[in-house]
Amino acid sequence: MKIDPWKSIEVKDYSKTMKEFGIDPIATLYKNLPLKSILFSRNVIFGHKDFGKIIDAIKNKEPFVMMTGLMPSGKFHLGHKIVADIMVYFQKMGAECYIAVADIESNLTRNTNREESKKLAIDQYLINYIALGLKSKKTKFYFQSEGSIEYNNLSKYVAKRTTFNELKSIYGGLSPEKIISAFTQVADILHPQLKENGGPKPVVVPVGVDQLPHINLTRDIASRMKSEYNFILPSATFNKMLPGLKKGKMSSSDSTSYIALTDSPEEAANKIKKYAFSGGRSTIKEHREKGGNPDIDVSYKYLEMLFEPDDKKLKKIYEDYRSGALLTGELKQILIEKVQKFLKDHQKKRQKAKKQVDKFIVKTSPKKR
Fold it and tell me: Domains in the chain, start-ordered, CATH in brackets?
């Protein structure tokens, strides 16, 4: 499999991908975390690079950072919620959360309007992050285009620590826009360790497998800049992607492939009934006799990764569906009820979250621009 960080990919065999690209399993490490989560126990977060230093920081109550970025395009959907849940989890573990709005990268690689991107980032991302539990006290939400002088300079200095051939081997076809975007991403991941942000500290970046090339490049550059900045090589966790309703990838251009967190409960129910890929049989009779396949059923995957916290209940759903005792329509109805309850509660929280937006956005003073 070839990884292209500029395009989303569909991983069919995570074990094989881990071996092929040097991603370590996280199962033996997460047990040392004081707060348990289905993100780890159900293998939603399945791998890592250098996560041990984050475990040590948590254990010793030392400062560490969770760094992530968002590409402001389309509606915030359940696939994005996976990353938001990871962000909130790390913040509960003591992390200071840095969230970069990739308005420069989005403009360069997707030709988006910067002002529209900023509005979308706040309405569709930040407000949902707040409603999902992110706290302002330990969050820095910033736009790439409004970073400090030190941050912007860092994105230029990293250019000295790599070569065109290295970038080409990592990213394949290059353009000036992609090169600038790559350097800006490196700066995003490393700048929490700048002097203005308290100096060197462990940083963890939760990503999908598609972002592995960016992580590897950043770690390499950090090691080459150690004498100047004393950077600690950033760590990473790797999470599975929630499948689209139709089983393939979610697409912002296809509203039938996802459930947005601003969809009405009725819209969500209709999407699940009509589009959620089923692991059931062609007829009720055949399903009762042979059973369904929960491992490929989208409704089951949504319960497993997001909506059923009780392991015993999830196991019963799995076994009943596998045996044929639970029909596809019944499985979908279980998910519908949980999604509808979540959306009703979440959309109330969104209204309250709108009043807190200003507390989260980093205001850069003119002297540091």
Answer: 14-241 (3.40.50.620), 255-352 (1.10.240.10)
